[in-house]
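Notebook p. 47: complex prediction with iron/sulfur cluster.
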Amino acid sequence: MVKISQAPPGIEGPGFFATSLDKVIGLARANSLWPLPFATSCCGIEFMATMGSNYDLARFGMERMSFSPRQADILLVAGTISKKLGPVLRQVYEQMAEPKWVMSIGACASSGGIFDTYSVLQGIDKVIPVDVYVPGCPPRPEQILDGVLKIQELAKNESLRHRNSSEYQALMDQYKIG
Ligand code: SF4
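Predicted complex, structure tokens below:
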């Protein structure tokens, strides 16, 4: 079934429709998010299932996986991230152009999961900012889809000024990025 996006809130009359630029750009961004899957273990398999015909991520305008960070909008981190891999993940994040969002899929990416060991990063938010966390070990594809919908909401409602705001800059400073 083809999903038709709802028009953003605006003023409507015979032969015209007016809304703000923020909302039009938000609508376009939310429905054309290109994901970069950074999958290292079992949660990555769940993500593959989410991409398959049964769950069909393409319904959300996301069928085009980007393995180049420069052409990706969402970083999907799925799986155990070792401390050694932390700088690589951070470099991938830094190479993505703004605006960008990060989704942490599963217990391992979000908190280290069951691997409370010397070698495993206890959550990717130690190295990059995260927008949406998806719980579970592993999360089901429905949960991953729910996370995607939440990122779409963030993209849809984000002000065009947000990325230049002092709050956003403070967040980047916290991570010593940029
Ligand atoms: S959260 Fe569970 S399923 Fe996901 S990578 Fe970790 S151990 Fe595997």
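Notes: The chain has six helices and six strands. The chain has a mean pLDDT of 93.
Next step: compare against the earlier run before touching the bench.
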